[in-house]
Amino acid sequence: MWLLSMLTAAVAPGIALLAYFYLKDRYDAEPIHMVARMFIIGALIVLPIAVIQRGLTLELGESPFVQAFLVSAGIEEAMKWFVLYHMIYNHTEFDEPYDGIVYAAAVSLGFATLENVLYALLLPASFGSLLLRALLPVSGHALFGVLMGYYIGKAKFASARSGRYLAASFLIPLFWHGAFDYILLVFKQYWMLLMVPLMAYLWFRGGLKIRRANDRSPFRSIPREDEIKMQRIRP
């Protein structure tokens, strides 16, 4: 029973956040099986990322800057970007800008969820520590995914400068992820003083990206099914 409770606490934040971002798609929701597939792939890349990170740590040392921006953020965001670009970018289901956010969030949250499960199983985790991880690493990965997906969506549907947006889809989440990890590595005592405003800003910025991506949907002018039903029942 204890193990089941811990696993539930480890998995629930990622599922809840994924549902939140999925339901934010206002015009053309993605197939559930596609979103679930990207979530699972995000979980599967945890092991190869861990191997690469271990090798880089042995080679480059444990400098906080190197660990934060190269070993942690660099490898993780590069692998997520690789998956999105090669499996989703040219997929027929990627047919509006917001889809990039949904799929990037799915990959990121799959990664964060399995990482959370391993944390619960391998370390002496408590419900308090899992709650803290839900508020910080899990939601952090989700927000980095939102930024990545937003710019991938811009690149997909831009009439020009798609290469610039593709670069931004990797470099911008890399920067914020690196800053996130650098705070945790360097500011041992007062990290909350920096982390709280950082997370508040990322949530604010993520909300803006979600709204802008939805506003660019080519399906905005097409009435949704619920709107059609309302029109039919109005006198």
UniProtKB/TrEMBL annotation:
Entry EC number(s): 3.4.-.-
Sequence intervals crossing the membrane: 6-23, 35-53, 100-122, 134-153, 190-208
Record localization: Cell membrane
Pfam families assigned: PrsW-protease
Keywords linked to the UniProt accession: Cell membrane, Hydrolase, Membrane, Protease, Transmembrane, Transmembrane helix
InterPro entries, per the entry: Peptidase_PrsW_arch/bac, PrsW
Chief location of this protein within or outside the cell: membrane
Family: Belongs to the protease PrsW family.
PANTHER family linked: PROTEASE PRSW
The protein's role, per its UniProt record: Involved in the degradation of specific anti-sigma factors.
Protein name (Swiss-Prot/TrEMBL): Protease PrsW
Gene that this polypeptide is encoded by: txxe 2263-ypdC
